[in-house]
Amino acid sequence: MIMEDNELFDDLLRQHDPKQLAESHIFPAALTEKEKQETSASLQKVLRQKRAIISSEDERTLTLMQLRFQIEEYLNGDHFDSEKTVGFFLAAYIRILGKKQKSLASEINTSATELNHYVKNSRNLPMEIMVRLELHSHGIIPAEDWLGLISKEKFYQLKTNQSLREQQRKFVSTVAGMA
To answer: 157 with 141: CB under 8 angstroms?
Structure first.
């Protein structure tokens, strides 16, 4: 393996000067097992130090942003996942906040029962609640994302519900000349 690396390096030196190589390539370092352990321990120490200076509020904000990105990635994808409903993401939102449903319901001025219906997907999230959730998250999760989740589910249902099409066929008369 070392011979292959040397040959690669020699080949690159023939094509580029050392400064260009330094600026454009990352060369693998051959570390001993002890050096790997020391490097890993050093990296872990730096990560712990960085995490220690992040406040719990900042960490919650970052986690909410991560949830927003998950929602948007799902909304931008072509695949429909019956698990990824408004209720699924609303439950994740509540979990990230470290709250009980009753507490969040109080903070957005709705009943705990009503919020529970949204989490269980037994009722559609009204636009007023979408806006309240946006305001509650300080704009991190926009109301449009909640609406997008509902729309994606409705679109899928409309697209795949053949029995609805058959039921509704009896209400439509065929225009002459069209089959």
So the answer is: no
